[in-house]
Amino acid sequence: MKLIVAIVQDEDSGRLVSALMDNGFRVTKLATTGGFLRAGNTTLISGVEDDQLDNALGIIEKICKSREQITASAAPMGSTAAGGVYVPYPIRVTVGGATVFVLEVSQFLKV
Description:
By secondary structure, this protein is of the alpha+beta class. Helix content is 22%, strand content 49%. The strands form 2 sheets. The protein has a 4-stranded antiparallel sheet.
């Protein structure tokens, strides 16, 4: 048995949970925050049998596609020591995708 821990962007989490459940996987959803943009993300955990691991990972890969997003960044204009100002400017960043950890489960109990 394996334990999948998948960290995905919030906007992908609903579709991913639905797809996993539609395919017979049980999923626990945890709200988490972190990453480069300090944006909300979701951590999903799911215990899967060894022979179902590739199926679950395929679903995650299909739903959680990377994409570009434009966000504002601030860069100093002039010397900050001399009272320079910060001017926001748009930058492209890659968001989405998933960070997935697969752990070996030595024991599983359901009480």
